[in-house]
Amino acid sequence: MKNFKAALISILIVFTSLSSQASKANLEDPEIYSILFYADWCGSCKVLDPAIVKARGKSDLDNESVLFVRLDLSNATKRHQSSLMAHALGLGKFYKDNGGATGFMLLVDAETKEVISTVTKKSDAKAITSQIKSAISKVSS
Predict the structure, then answer these.
(1) Helix axes 43-59, 125-140, angle to 10 degrees
(2) What SS3 state is found at 21?
(3) Which CATH class is domain 32-140?
(4) Is residue 33 helix, strand or coil?
(5) C-alpha span between 125 and 109 (Å, rounded)
(6) Is the pTM here over 0.70, yes or no?
(7) pLDDT by residue (tens digit) across 91-111?
(8) Separation of alpha carbons 124 and 141, rounded Å
(9) Which DSSP string corresponds to 118-137?
(10) Is the Cβ–Cβ distance between 136 and 60 less than 8 Å?
């Protein structure tokens, strides 16, 4: 019992410290969710994914208020994990409504959960950057 109390006190001290540090951090909610419906066997994904990576790198989009989410539907395990992620982020409707389709990215208003834009393999890095920046401007105004 003595060891249990000591362990419990230690856990509480660590938790209190972590909670204090988290509250001091500059935390913000995303304005946009960028939801990529992906599978490693998807031809459209093999075109779209590198364009997204290029757009993110060239335009520094990772420092914008955009949360990039990859819902990987490559196999049963990844579909299960993606379903859990979508539901945890409040995006379960998009996962369910998707019907298993891959090879596209939805830009979603994080607050209203409305789709602002859809990105497909037809979009190059420049067009993707433009669509994301336009989505950010739309929700910021």
Answers:
(1) 60
(2) helix
(3) alpha beta
(4) strand
(5) 21
(6) yes
(7) 999 999 988 899 999 999 999
(8) 26
(9) EE-TT--HHHHHHHHHHHHH
(10) no
Report the distance separating Cα 113 and Cα 100, nearest Å.
20
- Residue 107 C-beta-side C-alpha neighbours within 13 Å: 22
DSSP code of 80? Answer: H
What's the helix, strand, coil split of the chain in %, to 5?
Answer: 55, 20, 25
Q: How far is CA 121 from CA 21, 35, 42, 134, 135, in A?
A: 41, 14, 11, 18, 18
Domain locations in the chain? 32-140
> What single DSSP character describes residue 65?
S
Q: For residue 49, give every residue at least 6 positions away whose Cβ sits within 8 Å of its Cβ, in sequence order, or none.
A: 36, 38
Ramachandran angles phi, psi of 69, nearest 5°: -120, 125
Please give the Cα distance from 112 to 94 (Å, whole number). 13
